């Protein structure tokens, strides 16, 4: 098990959270808190950079959906950036590609 | 050792002189003096026990004067009640029989109250004709020895008390453990009953179709979040579903319960897979997600319709669930795509599309939850089993009847060991290669 590691920085488009490690039942609450604490304004974009995310189970997906709700209620946008291909496949199976703007490859938030 | 140097050795010349002086003092010691002041009590009695002679040492111990004793008291008068009894029943008869007795423990009464534990030895003096004349008795102060024995006894009682204490503590711990175990079993029973309300106890018989199922519970203390069901919707059609709710524990169980009964009701209302999932989506979204508590499930929902020609039509829709696998009679295994399906319950309006497949005789459709594909494999448990490996495994098994597929997968799951850390549900439905003699269902609603 790799512990979840979240780092926060601010880009021109809005806050960026780098999420690395394994996002599962035991660790999802940490990301949920971080997302709720992020200051988001209308027109901003919350970027979740998942380049270092190795695993995401159903609880992790719930947290991503909570982040999506959080961004929408703030009038902001949300992007999942640098989604690893293994996760992209899972996200596509569960239809997250219809909810999120999924960006592949490297961090596209314009640091 | 006996050097005669100038050392002040006690065994030397000076020492020898002192020893000689001590000897002469002893010689001056009269027999009478020795008798009276001996370090033990002396006592002579007639054969009836009347005290004829007694020494000063014993008189001092008793706190009595000679004239109180000699000629007027018997030996037994000196003893405690218990001692008297023992004397009558054992001491005197044995002494008459054997002529002597040694080291008998008795207690004598002191004049000022109190008792003195003593060791008594007696010997009978006989006359020239062999007739018993008198009894000579020595009395040793045994209070030190008695104290020692009492100390031993006390220690033994202490040890026994400590042992009893430990025994009681152990019994209490055992009782507490038993209680905890009983509580645990009661809780496990309650969970098992709840779990059974989330899953059908047995699958109904579907004429012309074989069904098989397996449910792996990751933790016996945790309510599972996977579910499945098979049930008739009318005389000719059967509904089946399998899915996985997000999260674990009681909250997941509540979601599972809502999901199961919503799908059952929806299927009776309108037995079209996409419609059933749309209903479920609305219910879950209104109940949870709309209130800011995003919860959802993944689900495959199908309607099975056995045909007159021995095949069965399957209509299928998926919401965010891994694709079903069909094991064909010709040995192929293929994914059954159900595109566009979104997690059920996250958006107010979710698109679900019904796909259709036909199961020919010998074909089996397999539904599974991601506990199977996300099992951790490899020596360091850092590799996920995955969909490709599962499809290859299915191809190896094909063609296979539902029972065989589930059995093979159950073995596979067992082989994952502790790499299988999530609940896993497996459901297989298939048309037997040789048609079933019962034919399609006509009246199997329950």
TrEMBL record, chain A:
One example GO MF annotation: anti-sigma factor antagonist activity
Pfam families: STAS_2
Domain STAS stretches: 16-111
SUPFAM superfamilies for the chain: SpoIIaa-like (SSF52091)
Family: Belongs to the anti-sigma-factor antagonist family.
Protein name: Anti-sigma factor antagonist
Organism: Streptomyces lucensis JCM 4490
InterPro entries: Anti-sigma_ant (IPR003658), MlaB-like_STAS (IPR058548), STAS_dom (IPR002645), STAS_dom_sf (IPR036513)
UniProtKB/TrEMBL annotation, chain B:
SMART domains from the UniProt entry: PP2C_SIG
The entry's keywords: Coiled coil, Hydrolase, Kinase, Transferase
Gene Ontology MF, one: phosphatase activity
Keyword presence, Kinase: yes
Pfam family, one: PAS_9
Coiled-coil ranges from the UniProt annotation: 145-190
Entry superkingdom: Bacteria
Ranges where the PAS domain occurs: 27-79
UniProt-listed PANTHER family: STAGE II SPORULATION PROTEIN E (PTHR43156:SF2), STAGE II SPORULATION PROTEIN E-RELATED (PTHR43156)
Alphabetized NCBIfam families for the sequence: sensory_box (TIGR00229)
Entry protein name: Histidine kinase
Originating organism: Streptomyces lucensis JCM 4490
Lineage summary: Bacteria, Bacillati, Actinomycetota, Actinomycetes, Kitasatosporales
């Amino acid at each position: 098990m790799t512990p979840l590691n979240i780092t926060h920085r601010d880009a021109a488009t809005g806050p960026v959270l780098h999420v690395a490690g394994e996002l599962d039942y035991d660790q999802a609450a940490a990301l949920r808190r971080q997302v709720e604490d992020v200051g988001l304004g209308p027109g901003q974009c919350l970027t979740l950079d998942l380049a270092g995310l190795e695993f995401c189970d159903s609880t992790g997906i719930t947290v991503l959906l909570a982040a999506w709700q959080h961004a929408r209620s703030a009038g902001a946008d949300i992007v999942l950036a640098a989604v690893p291909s293994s996760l992209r496949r899972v996200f596509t199976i569960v239809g997250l590609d219809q909810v999120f703007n999924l960006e592949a490859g490297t961090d596209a938030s314009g640091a | 050792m006996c050097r005669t140097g100038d050392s002040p050795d006690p065994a030397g010349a000076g020492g020898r002189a002192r020893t000689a002086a001590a000897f002469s003092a002893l010689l001056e010691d009269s027999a009478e003096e020795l008798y009276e002041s001996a370090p033990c009590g002396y006592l002579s009695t007639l054969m009836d026990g009347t005290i004829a002679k007694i020494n000063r040492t014993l008189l001092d111990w008793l706190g009595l004067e000679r004239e109180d004793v000699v000629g007027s008291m018997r030996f037994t008068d000196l003893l405690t009640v218990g001692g008297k009894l023992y004397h009558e029943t054992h001491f005197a008869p044995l002494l008459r029989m054997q002529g002597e007795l040694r080291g008998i423990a008795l207690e004598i009464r002191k004049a000022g109250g109190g008792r003195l534990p003593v060791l008594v030895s007696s010997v009978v003096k006989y006359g020239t004709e062999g007739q018993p004349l008198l009894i000579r008795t020595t009395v040793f102060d045994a209070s030190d020895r008695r104290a020692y024995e009492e100390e031993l006894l006390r220690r033994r009682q202490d040890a026994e008390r400590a042992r009893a204490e430990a025994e009681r503590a152990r019994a209490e711990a055992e009782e507490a453990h038993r209680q905890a175990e009983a509580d645990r079993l009661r809780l496990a029973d309650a969970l098992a009953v709840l779990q059974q309300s989330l899953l059908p106890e047995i699958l109904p018989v579907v004429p012309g179709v074989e069904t098989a199922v397996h449910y792996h519970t990751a933790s016996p203390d945790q309510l599972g979040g996977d579910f499945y069901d098979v049930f008739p919707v009318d005389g000719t059609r059967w509904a089946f579903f399998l899915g996985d709710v997000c999260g674990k524990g009681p909250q997941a169980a509540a979601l599972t319960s809502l999901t199961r009964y919503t799908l059952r009701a929806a299927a009776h209302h309108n037995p079209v897979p996409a419609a059933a999932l749309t209903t479920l989506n609305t219910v879950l979204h209104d109940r949870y997600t709309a209130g800011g508590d995003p919860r959802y499930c993944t689900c495959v929902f199908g309607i099975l319709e056995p045909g007159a020609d021995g095949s069965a039509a399957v209509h299928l829709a998926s919401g965010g669930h891994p694709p079903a696998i069909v094991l064909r009679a010709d040995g192929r295994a293929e994914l059954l795509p159900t595109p566009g399906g979104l997690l059920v319950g996250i958006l107010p309006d979710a698109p679900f599309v019904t796909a259709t497949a036909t199961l020919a005789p010998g074909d089996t459709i397999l539904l599974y939850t991601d506990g199977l594909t996300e099992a951790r494999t490899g020596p360091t448990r850092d590799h996920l089993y995955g969909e490709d490996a599962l499809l290859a495994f299915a191809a190896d098994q094909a063609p296979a009847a539902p029972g065989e597929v589930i059995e093979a997968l159950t073995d596979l799951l067992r082989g994952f060991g502790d790499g299988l850390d999530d609940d896993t549900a497996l459901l297989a439905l298939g048309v037997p290669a040789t048609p079933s003699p019962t034919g399609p269902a006509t009246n199997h609603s329950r």
